[in-house]
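#structure-requests
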Amino acid sequence: RGTDIKLGEGVAELGGLCILGTERHEARRIDNQLRGRAGRQGDPGESRFFVSMEDELMRLFGGDRLKNMMERLNVPEDQPLENRIVSRSIESAQKRVEGRNFDIRKHVVQCDDVMNKHREIMYTRRKKILERIAATEENSQSAEEKPLHQDILEAMRREIAALVQAHAGNDDPEQWNAAEIAETMAALHPSFADTVTTERIRTFQESEKVQEFLEELVVTFYEEKCKNQESSIVQRAEHIVTLRSIDMHWMNHIDDMAHLREQVAFSGFAQRDPLIEYKDQGFRRFRQLLVSIDSSIVRMLLQADFEQFAAQIFMRNAQNALENAQTNEDQISAELTETGAGSHLENTGENPIVVKTGASKAMSTPQQTQQVSKIGRNDMCPCGSGKKYKKCCGK
C-alpha cells in the first residue's frame, strides 16, 4: 500500500502489471488495495483472484451451498468457475465478516468507556491530593488545618457511619449486632476494646447516638495522636498512606475489571446483554473500591507509628542538602578563566575554591536549530531539474 510499482521497458505493451490473488481476504478493503497495485497513474494492468471452496472465508459463509450445487451439476473439481453468483456470494461473506468485526470493535470501545469513567474519577481524586500536598509544603499551617487532614477525618466519619448502618440500622436496639460493632472497633485500634463494649453499645436507644459516640471517640483519638507528633511527620504520614492506598486498590480494581470482562461474556447464555451486565457489576465494584480506599486509609493511620516516617523525612532532607551542595566545576572553572582568575590560580599553583553560583545556568544558552520545511513526494524537486521529488532526488 502506498508504493507504485514501476513498469519496466516493454511491459506496458504486453498488458502491464497483472495481480494474482490466491485467496480473498475477509475485508474488501484489503482486496481493493491489492488490486490497486495494477494500473497506477494510467498504466495498463489487471487483477484476478482464485478462490477455493475450502478457503476459510467460503467455508464459514456459503461455501457448502456452492459446493453442493457443483456436486449436483457434476462440475469437475479442477474446472474454474466465473459467475456473478459466486462473486456476489464472496462479497456477501465479506460483508458479514466486516459486520462481525465492527461489532467486536464497538463492544471493546463501549467496555473501555466504562473503565475510562472510573479512571477519570480516580485520577481526578489523586490529582487533588497531590495539589493539596503541594499546598501543604508551601503554607505554614499546622497539620490539623490542612485540607488533606480534614478529608481523612471525613473518611473516618464515613467509616463509622457505614459500620453503624450495617449492624445497628434498626430502631429496635434488641436487633443490633453490638458484638460485631465492638469487634470491628477493636480491629481499628486495640485501645478501643476497653471503651467500646457490647454493654456500652446497648445503653444507647438510638443508632444516631451510637454513631455520634463512635465518631467522637475515633476523631478525638486521632487528633490526640497527631498532636503528640511534629506537624511535618504527621503530614508526611498522611500523604504516603493516602497515595499508597489509592494506588494499591486501583491496581487491584483494574485486574478485577479485566476478570469481570471475561466472566460477563457467558451472560449471553442467560439471555442477558453482556455489556449491561459489565456496566452494572462494574459500577458496584467501583463503589466498593471507594469504600475500600477510605477503610484502608482509616485503619492504616489509626494503627501507624508516626516515628517510622521521621526517618524518611530525615533522609529526604539529607538528600536535598546533598543535591544543593553539588557544584558544576566545569562551568565555574570557565567563569574563573573568563575573569582571569583561573590563569592566576594556575600560575600560582593554588587550587581554586569551587563555589556554587546561580549564574552558571544563565551562561548556558540553548542551541539554535534551523527549521527546514519537509519536501513532499509530489512537490517539485529543489535541485531545479523540473521533475517531481519522488522521481528525482527522492528515489
